[in-house]
Inverse folding.
């Protein structure tokens, strides 16, 4: 459960990116945040895992008062929340499996870090995550030999390997062609349904948002201007 209570976000340059946001997002929801460029979508999403600090108000994520987290607690908290970016953020010159295993690095002992060895259990988790997104056969292929859609699936697998409760996605299909976008959205939908992971996605393709998300949150100039079921949205949005 994610709850925004009177949340404001003002950047150091005085831009008011979020103004008085009040929202409740329940476990297992698939939410698309839509709006024009500069509306505040990305800021809204990035406050949830504390990539950005809120300026005032309260943000509660799974019972945690996000603003109050300090140091080590922030890292621990972030591990429960997956984050997917438009640009995939992968190490392209190495294999798929190594990219997924990176998600375990903070948990590894110093010796393992320097020798590059991973626990068997972690390897199994990584391979399972690759299977969940349908690219197990690419485990030992270099990332730069994969298509954009396959790369986004590697990013998804890396996130799933951490067993997140929440999956945040900042424009995950913005750099993909329409066919690949559809496949990646199907993956998100399946993960949401089968693993009961909440998905909160920032997306500017309204028609894609309507097709896959259950709930649409419309943002304009830092404020929520629409919040409803995607099934209730008509053509005049
Ligand atoms: P969207 O994701 O809808 O395009 P953003 O959340 O990225 O919108 O941006 C909302 C507003 O905040 C914009 O005016 C943007 O220029 C500004 N902004 C975003 N990030 C920063 C930042 N790190 N520092 C200052 N201003 C920012
Ligand atoms: P994205 O769509 O991935 O958020 P942007 O191009 O909007 O990419 O922003 C890239 C980076 O620049 C982000 O870290 C964002 O917070 C920051 N940023 C965006 N707008 C501003 C701004 N007006 N001033 C300073 N930083 C900004």
């Amino acid at each position: 459960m994610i709850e925004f209570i009177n949340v404001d976000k003002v950047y150091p340059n005085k831009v008011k990116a979020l103004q008085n946001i009040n929202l409740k997002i329940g476990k297992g929801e698939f939410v698309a945040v839509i709006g024009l460029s500069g509306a505040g979508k990305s800021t809204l999403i990035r406050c949830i895992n504390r990539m950005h600090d809120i300026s005032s108000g309260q943000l509660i994520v799974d019972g945690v008062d996000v603003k109050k987290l300090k140091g080590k607690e922030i890292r621990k908290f972030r591990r429960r929340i997956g984050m997917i970016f438009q640009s995939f953020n992968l190490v392209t010159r190495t294999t798929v499996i190594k990219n997924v295993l990176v998600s375990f690095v903070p948990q590894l002992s110093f010796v393992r870090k320097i020798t590059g060895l991973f626990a068997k259990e972690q390897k199994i988790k990584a391979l399972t995550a690759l299977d969940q997104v349908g690219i197990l056969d690419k485990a030992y292929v270099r990332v730069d030999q994969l298509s954009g859609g396959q790369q986004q699936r590697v990013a998804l697998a890396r996130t799933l390997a951490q067993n997140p409760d929440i999956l945040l996605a900042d424009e995950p299909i913005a750099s993909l062609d329409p066919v690949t976008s559809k496949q990646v959205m199907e993956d998100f939908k399946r993960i949401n349904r089968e693993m009961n992971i909440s998905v909160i996605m920032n997306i500017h393709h309204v028609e894609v948002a309507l097709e896959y998300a259950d709930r649409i949150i419309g943002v304009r100039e830092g404020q929520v201007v629409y919040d409803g079921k995607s099934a209730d949205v008509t053509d005049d949005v």
Summary: The pocket of adenosine-5'-diphosphate (ligand 2) is lined by residues 13, 15, 42, 86, 170-171 (CB under 6 Å).
